[in-house]
Specification:
It is built from 14 helices and no strands. Helix 9 runs parallel beside helix 11. The protein starts with a helix and ends with a helix.
Length: about 270
Amino acid sequence: SNPRPLLYLHQSLLLQKQGRAEESNQLRNDALGLLDRKTISTQSRGYCYLMADALHKLGEYSRAIPFWERTILLTSEATDPTLVASDLHRLGECFCRVGLKDHAAVPLRATLRLMKDFHEDPRRAGLLLTLGNALRKSAPSEAEACYKEAAEWYAARLLYLSATPAWGNLGILCSEQGRHSEALEYQQKVLRIREQSPTLAKAHIGTVLNNIAACYMRMGRFAEAHQSIDRAIQLLTSEDVGLASAYSTKGMIFGDSGDDVQAVEWLHRA
């Protein structure tokens, strides 16, 4: 097997951690240019695992998928089931990240079956969150149960900050179903916890304020919606992915309240 792509990808990861983005991107591009999917079927399990792991960490999810599939195919049945579950979970996460939610549900449900006797394993809570994300549109009731179980796992161990993604997703799911009061309650809980975490990046607070603004908008409480989204915009910077979403929410609030001129302006910004 050609070791250069693997070497370049891991060097890219190291440079990324050092903040040397330009050099990291160059090495990553060099590695991707050397990848040949036709030769994956001839690679060993160890090579495929290391490639999948590196590509996953670099956000190259679609490229990581065939390497995760090959890794799982070559895994012995005698292997620790939690390790097999970990590989299946990451395969499912890749499918989720590229928008193939129905594909993601298959390995994620298989992972949950493997983890059925490992209720204390923290990876189970992360799995439930990922499975909920995969099922939110196609099976919302099952997704809601996943989010609740994940949130309860963290809350039972007083890991409230870790529970906020599950509560936040419950809020989004409730909002999508028109359960706006429940949605707002979940999002406000997330906001309280995140505001009490001084080391948390401001973008995480800006994101939940955006979600709260959307809840208020759907409830027709436009003054409160503007107040929340203005706070979100103050916290988010041009480096944050959520800023465009916040601008879009601001535009939609104006649109729903009948101010089309301002709506167009903010949607153009988004």
